Amino acid sequence: YAFSDYQAERMGQGELPLWNPYNHSGDSFAGNIQFATWYPPRWIAIGLAGVGNWSIEAYQLEVAVHYWLVSLMMYAFLRLLVKRPVVALIGSVLYTYSGYLTGYPMLQVSVMESVAWTPLVFFGLELSMKHPRWLVRGSVVAGIGVALSFLGGHPQTTLQILYLALAYLAFAVYRGRISPVGFVLRAGIF
Q1: Which pTM value belongs to this model?
Q2: Which residues make Cβ contacts (< 8 Å) with residue 23, sequence separation at least 6?
Q3: Using a CB cutoff of 8 Å and minimum separation of 24, what contacts does 53-57 make?
Q4: Is 114 exposed, middle or buried (0-12, 13-18, 19+ CB in 10 A)?
């Protein structure tokens, strides 16, 4: 909370939080990825809280909104994958509110804000595989998910998401869902 409070304080004064004079003898605030200085949802949350109104409750609301977003994005991914609304809803609720997401990430906000975008990455991948005309759009959606995950402040989690996404694509090739040559040709790479 302390670092988000400092960020809100600087932004409330019309400054970018580039340097933190209070930490040690001063250090780069914007250069520390775990502070999530450039994370767009944080900027939106600070803006919605208003100048001088950033509090621990606003910070907790930011985390709660991420759980809501995870629920929606996982529902969209599962709906695209299985096409059954009840199954997608049950899967979304189970993924979001049990297991890993309700344990450690809730206590480490940078981890939560990074892992929250996993369903968006897979939604984009699945969209690009299911509908050939959506290849570029699906790739952009997956790329936005990766970018938001990275800016969320925990690059280790983003790397794990990328490994999982590559495994997902490799499995799709193995199962014959996509052809690597067709995928490259459709993308217009060559």
Answers
A1: 0.89
A2: 29
A3: 54/4, 54/5, 54/8, 54/9, 54/12, 56/1
A4: buried
CA distances in angstroms from 184 to 82, 106, 138, 141, listed in the order given: 26, 39, 14, 18
> CA-to-CA distance for 44 and 142, rounded, in angstroms?
21
Answer for the pair 60, 175: CB distance below 8 angstroms, yes or no: no
Q: Which of 114, 111, 135 is nearest to 124 (CA)?
A: 135
DSSP string, 13-27: TT----EETTSTT-E
Query: Could you tell me if 111 and 124 are in contact, meaning their C-beta atoms sit under 8 angstroms apart?
Result: no
pLDDT, tens digit, 9 for 90 and up, residues 26-39: 888 888 888 899 99
